[in-house]
Amino acid sequence: MALDFPHLDLSADEVLTTTRSVRKRLDLEREVPLGVITDALEVALQAPSGSNAQGWHWIVLTDPELKKVVAEYYRTSYFAYAEAGAAARAAKPPKDLETAEKVASSATYLAEIMEQVPALVIGAIHVPGGELPAGNQAGLWGSLLPAAWSLALALRERGLGSAWTSLHLEYEREIAEALGIPASVRQGVLMPVAYTKGTDFKLAKRAPLDTVLHVNGW
Q1: Which domain holds residue 33?
Q2: pTM exceeds cut of 0.90
Q3: In whole angstroms, how far apart are CA 173 and each of 77, 135, 179, 185?
Q4: What is the domain count for the chain?
Q5: Residue 81 burial (10 A CB sphere; 0-12, 13-18, 19+)
Q6: CB 129: neighbour CB atoms within 10 A?
Q7: What phi and psi, each to the nearest 5 degrees, are found at residue 94?
Q8: What are 120-149's pLDDT values in tens digits?
Q9: Residue 210 CA to its chain's centroid (Å)
């Protein structure tokens, strides 16, 4: 594992509690060497997977034309989703409307500049036959998503940011065709990756643990 790239001086707890979904603070001007992404992926590949199958695949896009293809599909999906979300907020305002509107503004910004982000990383997993299983799919995605989150953490430690997105999946087949992804490999997450404008990310506001904790039953 290469360790030539600078690392932030953060404890494990600090990395875990300050890795945020970064959108407006992505640095669109600073180049991201492919090596820093593969360095972080080396860490991500230590994540667990069912039966240790390690069926994951990682598609890293730095080519402007390919990023544009993915970004256009993402935008189409996002704005349909955002329109529905805005209508829902208008009909029934959430308890924390200010935060909801701030998140919506941030997400809209990301959709608008997606192809300008230095790198897009798609996390995918091999599925025999290509058809997703019926019913609960936790076992399948549980063999990909922990590694994707480990990638986000490893990027944070290296001074980079990312955001967990999946709205491109509305056009999964079209994107797979454009990128030459086999039908037996299903996409699970799209992560825009860039250095961040500053590295001073803080803990986010969360509901108290007591409101979601259940011990020995519900």
Answers
A1: 12-211
A2: yes
A3: 14, 21, 10, 10
A4: 1
A5: middle
A6: 8
A7: -70, 165
A8: 999 999 999 999 999 999 999 999 999 999
A9: 28
